[in-house]
Amino acid sequence: MKKYLVEFIGTFFLVLTVGMTVIDPVVAVGFAPLAIGSALMIMVYAGGHVSGGHYNPAVTIAAWLRGRCATADVPAYLVAQVLGAAAASFITLYLKSDPTVTPKEIVFVPALIAELIGTFALCYVVLNTATAKATAGNSNYGLAIGFTVTVMAYALSGISGGAFNPAVAVGGTLMHLVKVSNLWVYLVANFGAGALAALTFKFTHPDDK
User: Fold this and answer.
1) Which of 5, 55, 120, 180 is most exposed, with minimal Cβ within 10 Å?
2) Cα separation values, 126 from 22, 29, 30, 95, 171, Å
3) Sign of the CA dihedral 52, 55, 58, 60?
4) pTM for this entry
5) pLDDT tens, position by position, 113-134
6) Considering only CA atoms, which of 170, 163, 173, 172 is closest in space to residue 194?
7) Percentage of the chain surpassing pLDDT 70?
8) How much of the chain exceeds pLDDT 90, in percent?
9) Which residues of 103-124 are buried (b: 16+ CB within 10 A; e: fewer)?
10) Between 26 and 4, whose confidence is greater?
11) How far is CA 114 from the centre of its chain?
12) Helices within 67-182 (DSSP H only)
């Protein structure tokens, strides 16, 4: 249970940061990606030694396909992450006094591509910095993971909103940042990118079991 609780907590703070900085922002909106990437970074450092610090169903799928997440843990990880995102969403809406939020308009194909690229980058960095034998024991994996989200958010959020995470997409839907009818775009692109990152890692690291 401790692994699942850590995944809940980490995803909670990640999605809370998304909501609090993007909805009627308390900080300048231009700094939201930096805050979000930093939230992920500190939660990875806080809980990575317990659960692996995924906080993202796409990362869990990538780690599972790579062989670094037990099959029995996958469903509970996904549930914990989505529940953490949902809890953060409801608390954000309460703290923001249930504001009127206009969901982001997206164009399906560019948004799919943007989410695929951003999520691939994140999962690829996670696998290479936190699961590869050659980088075992390093102390910079959290920085690399957090800054990947920051960079991809600055680069691509104007196209797709920059979720790069199915749990964030679910939270964004609950906070009315994402249209319900558009949720499939994030789920398809994010999970597909996680699988692609795992296959790429296994191809480039054939001896890293």
Assistant:
1) 180
2) 25, 27, 25, 32, 22
3) positive
4) 0.96
5) 999 999 999 999 999 999 999 9
6) 163
7) 98
8) 95
9) bbebeeeebbebbbbbbbbbbb
10) 4
11) 14
12) 74-95, 108-130, 141-160, 166-174
Tell me if 14 sits within 8 A of 40, measured CB to CB: yes
Fold of the 2-204 domain: Glycerol uptake facilitator protein (1.20.1080)
Q: Which amino acid, residue 144?
A: A
What one-character DSSP code corresponds to residue 206? T
Q: Is 107 helix (H, G, I), strand (E, B) or coil?
A: coil
Rounded-to-integer distance, Cα 18 and Cα 37, Å:
10
Contact (CB, 8 A) for 62 and 166: no
CA 16 to chain CA centroid, Å, is 12
DSSP three-state, residue 75: helix
In this structure, what token pair is assigned to residue 194? 């996680």
Domain boundaries defined on the chain? 2-204
CA distance 44 to 198: 19
Q: Encoding tokens for residue 49?
A: 């030694």
